[in-house]
Amino acid sequence: MGDDGERLEEIRNAFRLGRYEVSRHATARMLRRGIRTDEIEEAVASAEVIEDYPDDKYGPSLLLLGFTRGGRPIHVQVAYRRMRIVTVYEPEPREWTDWRRGRIDHAQ
Question: Are strands 101-103 and 48-53 parallel, antiparallel or unpaired?
Fold first, then answer.
């Protein structure tokens, strides 16, 4: 298993045990976007890594895509050394292909 796969398993385990933090920014985003903690935990449990940010200002992090039991797609950026949610949002279809493949160029 590669580094991202190992990190993803560490993240899943931490979230399953409730051993993670939520940044103020992520808390504000959750409230604004109507994303509940249980939905984040559901999404992380089924997540896949879609982007890696090794040099992020909040520490190395991964952008995860997961789905709630109800099928809602959620992106969760996790700074994995601190097990801290940096941000969370429901991806916009016009910005993502299949929720996971990069951003679509709007200039075309």
Answer: unpaired
- Cα–Cα distance measured from residue 66 to residue 46, given in angstroms and rounded to the nearest whole number: 5
> How far apart (Å, rounded) are the C-alpha atoms in residues 80 and 8?
9
Indicate the pTM of the whole model: 0.87
Distance (Å, rounded) from C-alpha 33 to C-alpha 105? 24
In angstroms, how far is the first alpha carbon of the chain from the final one? 38
pLDDT tens digits for range 35-87: 999 999 999 999 999 999 999 999 999 999 999 999 999 999 999 999 999 99
Q: What are phi and psi of 84, to 5 degrees?
A: -125, 130
